[in-house]
Amino acid sequence: MPIRTILLAVTATLALLIGQGSSRADDKAAAAVASDDNGKYADKDGNPTFKIQPDGTVDWHTYSGYRRFNSECNVCHGADGAGSSFAPVLAESLKTMSYADFLSTVAGGRKNLSNGNDKVMPAFGDNKNVYCYMDDLYVYLRARAVGDLPRGRPAKHEDKSAAAKQAEDSCMGG
Fold first, then answer.
1. pTM, two decimal places
2. Domain residues for 58?
3. Which of 41, 94, 112, 154 has the most Cβ atoms closer than 10 angstroms to its Cβ?
4. Could you tell me where the beta strands, DSSP code E, fall in the chain?
């Protein structure tokens, strides 16, 4: 079974289980770290989130999300998710988009063909450089959305954990 088909089925199931529609509003309180699993942080609902130290050091996954965003997403969505003439401001979209909706949109794509303002988000469910790092992309954009991460490359980041290395190797086939 193609990876994209599996990923779409998992994200659809996740959306049903989480039960979060796109009417939710994300903010600093909702994005607060509630748990830490070897440097991978989650909020009180179990959704991936970021951790930024008082000195500006970001967690590895936020930094990785920045790197992946700039290699795969900024060509359409603009630097730092600030949007462009043909793709939305992701730093705004994530304020109301659930984690499950994010996964589903990135994996399966989206079309908005109305009012002569056609926008098409391609599906990235078959692109390992995206789907292996979807949580990283999410936490990076979430940090931007709630205003905790300024524009530009994070100056400092935590080291990559052994768990992150293992997950990457497993997904990328290494």
1. 0.81
2. 3-172
3. 94
4. 35-37, 40-42, 48-49, 110-112, 119-121
